[in-house]
Design a protein that fits this description.
alpha/beta
């Protein structure tokens, strides 16, 4: 009986992830919403020395589903591929939203992880999960940017004398 339950769970996950793609992301986050989010990231980054990157994916690639990988595994991969780890002060943060599973992951570089404990990251993710369960994706991502802005302002204040170098694009990445 347990093997049937596991099989059904995997089948549901496969169906949800393979039936959700970039069109679903664009339906939930139309161009105007993506522009507002990019502007929010840009405004945030003028207040601190950190970098925030948003990535929204409709469903996991088949290779992740086949090996039963978690959304966090995909977020860690994208953290590297999008070069969020490659900021001057090791203070980049990836906000990853997997729409098919209503999962949000926050991946921070070592400069932030050294200053902030895992409980704080889990608290932010839990709060954001509530908006995602209600399909309020833009609101959830906006809240994530705002929460990270406060954190980055406290731990990586901007040197007001020098112009802020934008190390990563502000526009959200949309994946199928």
């Amino acid at each position: 009986m347990a093997s049937i339950t596991i099989w059904l769970k995997r089948a549901r996950r496969l169906f949800a992830n393979r039936c959700s793609d970039a069109r679903d992301v664009r339906a939930a986050l139309p161009p105007a919403a993506l522009e507002r989010l990019a502007a929010r990231v840009s405004a945030s980054e003028q207040q601190h020395a950190g970098e925030i990157r948003l990535c929204v994916e409709g469903g996991l690639p088949w290779s992740y589903i086949r090996r039963d990988a978690a959304a966090r595994d995909r977020a860690l991969t994208l953290f590297g591929k999008l070069r969020v780890w490659d900021t001057e002060h090791n203070n980049g943060v990836l906000i990853y939203l997997l729409m098919a599973e209503h999962a949000i992951e926050l991946i921070a570089d070592r400069g932030l992880v050294a200053r902030i404990g895992p409980d704080y990251w889990a608290k932010i993710a839990t709060e954001l999960g509530q908006t995602l369960s209600e399909r309020r994706f833009e609101e959830g991502l906006t809240r994530a940017v705002d929460a990270l802005t406060a954190l980055l302002v406290a731990h990586f204040p901007r040197d007001g004398a020098a112009p802020k170098l934008n190390e990563l694009p502000d526009a959200p990445v949309v994946l199928g």
